[in-house]
Amino acid sequence: MNPITSPDPESITSPAIPASRFTEMLIEENGLKPDVFRRWTFCQGMLFKSPDKWWGDHGFRDFPHEGIDLCQYEDDSGTIRRLDHTTRIPVMHDGEVRAIFKDYLGQAMIIEHKHPADISENFLSVYAHTKPISGIGVGTGVKQGDIIATIADTGHSKANILPHLHFSLGIPSKSLSYEGFVWNVMRDPEMVTLVDPLVVIDWPHHELNAESLECREI
């Protein structure tokens, strides 16, 4: 079995985004067990800045990937399991919902956070391809671990893609306005400095070989 991959300390690009219990909270809120949820697994195209698609024709993306796609995990027996449209999504830290907009597969939610150590620089988290729960809207305050959405059901999508959570992290610029926030704003480096989420969600992970059955079947 391949060794568990740990985040590269050199890839931690900003002290303004603290580590999160995000994966641990997702496991708890979905009735899973930490010793069964051994590690996240990623196919080529699911990771930050990847130029590739992991679905459809497996060709190139129009833009490098702005985050990570959380879809699959390996259990303690080595079996690859998948999240689905019933998966409940917790918020990573205390914050405020600043924008919600339709994306390619569901809705994307932008939450702005203040650093828990009172560092002046705020940061934002993006939960995309979701179905927000009732009562969540722009201006809603949320606490770490609150359930904010479920993963969108992609069964009727023309993209023919598995349900998954697109998760992005970034540092907003001083000039960023959340009014009219859409996907192109997130990928504009003058508006948001994106950060690799793998160094923040704090859980073992592994990239599968592109020829593995689990990746060829999706």
Keywords, please?
4 helices, Glucose Permease (Domain IIA), disordered N terminus, mainly beta, single chain, 218 residues
Summarize the topology.
Elements: H1 22-29, E1 39-42, E2 68-70, E3 72-74, E4 80-82, E5 88-90, E6 95-102, E7 107-113, E8 123-132, E9 141-142, E10 147-151, E11 165-172, H2 183-186, E12 192-195, H3 198-201, E13 205-207, H4 213-216
Parallel strand pairs: 1-13
Antiparallel strand pairs: 1-3, 2-11, 3-4, 5-10, 6-7, 6-9, 7-8, 8-10, 8-11, 11-12
In the CATH scheme, the class would be Mainly Beta
Mean pLDDT: 90
Helix content: under 10%
Q: What percentage of the residues does DSSP assign to strands (E)?
A: 25-35%
- CATH architecture label name: Distorted Sandwich
- Helix count, DSSP H or I runs of 4 or more residues: 4
Helices and strands: which structural class? mainly beta
User: What's the total count of β strands?
Assistant: 13
Order of helices and strands: HEEEEEEEEEEEHEHEH
Coarse morphology? globular
Characterize the largest beta sheet: strand count, sense, and whether it forms a barrel: 9 strands, antiparallel
CATH topology (level 3) name: Glucose Permease (Domain IIA)
- Span of the ends, CA to CA: 22 Å
CATH superfamily: Glucose Permease (Domain IIA)
Report the C-alpha radius of gyration, rounded. Answer: 16 Å
For the record, the count of structural domains works out to 1
Low-confidence stretches: 1-13
